[in-house]
Amino acid sequence: MINKREKLQYAYVFVLDLVTLAVSVLLAWLITDGLLGRIVPYDISDWVQTLCLVVVAFVVTFFFFNQRQNIVTRGMGQEVGLALRFNVLMAAVYSTLMLLTKAAMLDSRYFAVAVPLVNLALMVLAHTLLKHYLLHARNKRGAENLVGILSTVDHAPAVIWALHDDWSKRICGVALLDAPEEAVGREVEGVPVRATYDGFMDWIRRAALDEIYVDIPMDSGESFLPYLDEMESMGLTVHFRLKLLDRIEEICCDETSAARLSRELGRCAGGNIVTMGTMELELRDMVLKRVVDILGALVGCLISIPIIALVAIPLKLESPGPLIFRQKRVGLNGRYFYIHKLRSMYVDAEARKKDLLPQNEMNGLMFKMEDDPRITRVGRFIRRTSIDELPQFFDVLRGNMSLVGTRPPTVDEYRQYESHHKRRLSMKPGITGLWQISGRSDIEDFEEVVKLDVKYIDNWSLWNDFKIMCRTIVVVLGGRGAK
């Protein structure tokens, strides 16, 4: 299972190395032509052909190298060795391509040698700068995974130090299962103690977490299985250290070398861990989904602006107050964000909700009501036509939401969630989703909503997203299920 650090690192290194190569080509040309005067005049078409072959050689070479090793833990010697092997192979691939295509610049040997030599030096420098950036800016990007640790007083420090090297993770807290209650609020290696044995599951249920690292002394792990099952039901990725594997490695190193090197296993704090979790999107799928979100949101914003302008006047005339309703919601794995909608209710709607709770038509944690008195007349129209959802295209553009996903709950709803309900938050929330095209407000059981959301997450594909978007248009135009 490829983890988030590996996905992000793959993208960062690819883009950085490509930019470095472009600079190397420019410098190589300045050196061989401007400084040494060794390049004879070539046509523009010859240069375009050569540059294309250089890029192809780079891409082919890049995919031959293992990009999963943590770049932060690589020493300078490793970086130089990697850059040397990379550029030698790239030069070989480039030369082969030049021969096969009989390129016009085949006789320009100075340029062919200068590019990998310059790129060798620049690649080492670029990777060093990238490592510095990843270590010092990781908590400022907001892209890191939020991690919780379940361990003991003796084992926790080693796990914390091991995870400090992973720039894609931010440790949010540690639960010390053998510590007294007074330990809560203290720190272990700079990480706050959030809970002890009595309250660690309550902390996990309510905290914004993406991953859990479990490192506790036990022989079989049988007693911990119910907790692991509950964590998995939330959609969390759980890294569980098995002491038995450590013992096998110690006694039978040669016989188990293949198993130890398998990518199905991981290592943390000097020991083996087995990772289980919900579906992990491939890097290309994550990139494609985000590209579709950005393009779709841009089109949605352009369409939304004139429509919002048209309904703004009657909305403000009927009910004075802000045009845009901004509400705190719960998104990916418990993260809070603000969702934006056109205000379809009177300004005191939230205060009046408590009095209307007995009339809730949903069986569960969502609130739906026929002829809700808090909704204005214009509000009913924009809800029926889903115009009130249009400002969420701007939320998608900002990255807080996706075009297709699961609907984000309110904070009050989230606080009442059972563990398995949190599974529906293991993917970024969306404007539309499987629930919306399967009946929307006609579904009166919250557990059915959860089942539909989990079904979407477990069977995600870009094609399914496309089908949901198409069916959403049909549902909206038909006004089915909207209240």
UniProtKB/TrEMBL annotation:
Q: Which GO terms describe its cellular component?
A: membrane
**Where is this chain's protein located in or outside the cell?**
Membrane
Q: What is its main location?
A: membrane
Cross-referenced Pfam families, in alphabetical order?
Bac_transf, CoA_binding_3
Q: How does it sit in the membrane?
A: Multi-pass membrane protein
Residue ranges constituting the Bacterial sugar transferase domain according to the UniProt record: 289-477
Where does the chain cross the membrane?
Answer: 12-32, 47-65, 86-104, 110-130, 294-315
Protein origin, superkingdom: Bacteria
GO MF, one term, reads: phosphotransferase activity, for other substituted phosphate groups
Tell me the keywords, alphabetical order: Membrane, Transferase, Transmembrane, Transmembrane helix
Record-linked InterPro entries: Bact_transf (IPR003362), EPS_sugar_tfrase (IPR017475)
Q: Which family does it belong to?
A: Belongs to the bacterial sugar transferase family.
This chain's protein is named: Sugar transferase
Biological source species? Candidatus Gemmiger avistercoris
